Amino acid sequence: MFAFVAARLHYTVANGSSQRIHFPKGGPYDERLGYSRLPDFMRQLQGAGYQVTAQARASYPFLVLSSLGVSPAYPEKDQAGLEILDRTAAPLYTARHPENIYPEFASIPPVVVNTLLFIENRGMLDPEYPNHNPAIEWGRLANAGLDFTLHKIYPPHPVTGGSTLPTQLQKIRHSPGGRTDSPAEKLRQILSASLSTYRDGSQTTEAQRRVIRDYINSIPLAATSHQGEILGLGDGLTAWYGANFDHVNQLLWTREANLDSTQMRARAQAYRQVLSLLLALKEPSQSLVRNPDMLFTRTDRYLHALAANGLISPRLRDLALAQHTPLAAHLTPAPPPDFVEAKATGRIRARLVSALALKDSYALDRLDLRVSTTLDGAVQGSVTQFLRGLMDSQEAEKAGLIQNRLLATGDPRQVIYSFALYERSGGANLLRVQTDNFNQPLNINEGTKLQLGSTAKLRTLITYLEIIEQLHHSYGGMTPSQLQSVAVLPGDRLTQWAITYLSADTAPSLETMLQAALDRTYSGTPDEAFFTGGGLHYFGNFELSEDLQILTVREGFRQSVNLVFVRLMRDIEAYYRYRVPGASPSVLTDSHHPDRHAYLARFADQEGSVFLSRFYAKYQGQSPDQALETLLKGIPPAPVRLSVIYRSVRPDADLDAFSAFLEAHVPAALKNQDATSLYKKYSAEQFNLADRGYLAHVHPLELWLLRYREQHPQASLQEVLAQSHDARQEVYAWLFHTRYPEAQNKRIRIVFERDAFREIWKGWKRLGYRFDSLVPSYATAIGVSGDTPKALAELAGILINGGVRYPSVTIQELNFGRATPVETVLSRVPVQGERILSPVIAALVRQEMVGVVEHGTGRRALNAFVLPDGNILPVGGKTGTGDNRFKVFAPGGRLTDQRAVNRTAAFVFIIGDRFFGTVTAFVPGKNAAGYEFTSALAVQIFRDLAPRLLPLVAKNQSDASCQVPTAATCQPVANSRTAH
Question: Are the beta carbons of 572 and 494 closer than 8 angstroms?
C-alpha cells in the first residue's frame, strides 16, 4: 500500500507561478533551509522587483497528504546552503551546512553503522526481510504507548521512546521544534517515514541504508557560541572534540591488525568520540554542555555492551575505556578574513539579508538558495589580483606607476584602489566587476563620500547644458524684436548670452545652440577673488600655463581647468539666484522690502545651526566638567572672562562653587578682585546672550550649548538644534537693527546662494547624486561637495544609454529549494527606463568625454581597447584629483597650519557603447600628506586593466556595436605597438 501511494507522490517544475505547491509549516529542517518561509520571501522579493518565473507543481495525492501534515516523500538534502554564481554559472561563493557529511552509505565505516543500529534500531538491515518497513517496530511502539498512558495517569512514570531511525529522522527534520508532542504527531512521523521508505518500491534495503546515512549526517547536537547550530556526526566531531573528520574515518576504516599501538590508541579515541556523540543525541545540551560526566559514564557502559555483543573487539574496548578526551567547543584557528576577495559577494549577501528580512548572514548562509548574478567571476578575480598586487613596490614599478612618476612618493601599500565595471544590456546596467584592495568590510565604491576633484565638472557641464536647453525651449521660437523685450535678471549672464545668440541666428537647432554654448569662453586667471560659500575665496589651476589663457568651456572640460568651471558655476548660480520662488533683486535694493527680515532670520537660523553643529561635535562624549575645561583651553585666564563663562554655563551655582572655580583658574588675579562682586555683576540675568559672548570672547552659541548640556547631558544634535531656535535669533539680533544695509545684503546674498545651490542640487540628485545637499560654493564645480564612485558610474550609465536611466542590477535570479517540491525561481522584472536627459545632451557630453581621452587629461586611455579584428573601441571619460587638506589661516590670510585629510584620483569612463564604470585611487587620513599622485594614476590603472577586461568587453562585439554617436569611430590599428 505504501509503495502504491508513494509512486503517485511526484512533482515537476514548470514556468510561471504554481497553484499546486505546498509549503511546510516549519520543522527545524524546513525553517533552516527556508522552505517554510518561502511565501514571505516571495512577497518581499516581488516588492523588490522580482517575479516568480518557475515553480514546482505537485501531484494531487502529494498535495492532499501534504495538507494533512504528512511530509512529502522526496530525496531530501543532507547538505545545503547559499550558492552565489557568476554570469556563467561558475561559483563565486558557496556555504555548505553541515560541512562534513558522508556522501553515500558505502562511505560510512561499518563500525559506525553497527554502533548506531545497536543504540537505536537493531532490527534494520536484516537481509531476511527485504520488504521490512523500518519505520515501525510494533513491540517498541506498544511499550511506548503503554508508558505514555501510564505517564498521563501518574506523571512520575518515565516515558520511553518508540521512535525508529526513520521516525526520528522525520522528527528532527519536520516536527515542530524537533519534538514529538502528541500521539497524532507520532502517527504523522510514522506515515511520513513509511512513505519515504517505499518511495522507490516495495524493497526497502536501499531505503534503510539511505535513512542511516541521512540520520548520521543530520543529528542535531548542542550549538557552540562561535559556530552556532551543529548538525551531523562530522561537524560534531570537529566542533566538540576538535577532531579531523577525514582522519577519524581513515582510522575507523582500517583493520585493527594493520594498526600499530599508537594508531590503535588513536582509533580507540576516535571511536569513543563517535560513540559519545551518537549517545548525546537524546539530550544534546545536557550531555555536551551541562553534564558531560553523565555522557562519559554512559559511554563507558556502552563500550562494555558493544564488546559483549561482538560489535567491537575487547582490545578496542579497553583502549577506548582508557581514553578521556574532554568535551569542549573547539574553535579551529581560522586565518583572518579576506575582505578583498569577498568584497563583491559580501555586498550581495548583505543585500539578500535585507531583501529577505533575515536577522543576519548566518541565517542566509543556511538557506537552500542559489543566486545567479551578473558578475564575471574570471574578470573579477583578475582585476582583484591586479589591484592587490599594486600594494607591492615591485608590482607597482612593473605597472609603470613609479618610474613614470605617477606614484613617485608615498608607500604603495597605503593606496586603496577601487574599480567598477557595468554593461548595459536588456534595459539594465549589469554589474560585471566591483572590487577594491581595501582589506576591510567597507565597500569603497558605494560606502564612501570622497572628494573626487574634477569629476564634478562632468555634473557641472550637464547642469550648464540643461540650462541652455531650457533657454532654447523658452526663447528659441521668438523673433528678434520679441527677444529684445525680454527682461534679464541682474547677473544672469547665461540668459543674456542666449538672447544675444538667438537674436543673431535664425531658429538654430538645440544641438547647434549647445555646441555654441560649449564654445563660450572664460578666463583662466586666478587673480580674481570670489565671494562664495559665506566668504572670500581664491582658486588656482593645476597647470600654471592655464592662468594666462582664455579657454572655451569645451577646452576647460577636456583640460580640466579649474578657473573656467569656477566661473561657469558662478554663472549657473546667478541663473538660479532669482528663479527660486520668492527671490527678488528688490530685496537687496529696497532696504524696506517686507522680505528682508525673513531672509535675515533664515541666515541667522542657518548660520547658527552651522556653529552649533561644530560645537556639538567639539564637546561630544565629554562630561560637563570636561566640556567646561575644553572651552577654557586657549582663553587667557582673565577674571572677567572666566566669570562670564562660569555664570553663563552654570547660572544656578552658588558663590562658593564660583569662588572655587576662579581660585582654581586665576588665583593670582583674584587678589585684586572681589569674587562676590564678580558673582553678582556677571550673572546671566545682567546681560543678553550676545553680550555675554562679547565679554567672554567666546561665540555666544557655544555658551548656550554648554549651558544646555549641563541640563540635558544626553541631548542629541537634533534636539539641540530644535531647542536653540530662539537663541540663534537672539545672537543675531544686531543684524536686524544695523544701520548698515550692506552688512544685511551680504547675509541675504549668502541665503540667495544657498537657495540657488539647492536648485542645482535637485538637478544633480536627478542624475544620481547620493547626498542630501551641496556645499553652496563655486568650489562644488571642482569637487568640494564630494561624490561616490558608484554615483559617478550611474551618471556614465545615463549618458551611455542616451539620457535614460536604467536600474543597476547584480542579482538576476534566485532559485529556492532547487530539486525539491517547493522549488521556486524568481527573476528580475524588466522595468521601463526613465528619461533623465535629452538624447542631444547625452550624446554631446559623451562626445566631450571622448574628447577628454583624445585631446585632454585622459590621453593615457587612448587606444586602450583593440578588438581582435583590429578595430579600436572609443573610450571617453572624466578625470579628477582630490588633494583635500584642512587649513587654518590667520587674520590677513596667512596660512598658519594645515593637515592632510585624504588624497584621491578618479577616472569615470565609458568604453564603446556598452561598458562604463570608475577607477579610484585613495589615501585616507594624515598619510595622504606623503603622496603627490594625480588623476593620471587612475587613468594608467584603467589602461593597465584593459587586457584583463578585453575578453569581456570584446565578447559578441560587432561592427555596429563599435559605433557611438560621437566624433570618435572604430578604426583599425595599423601598428599594434603604436596603438598600445
Answer: yes
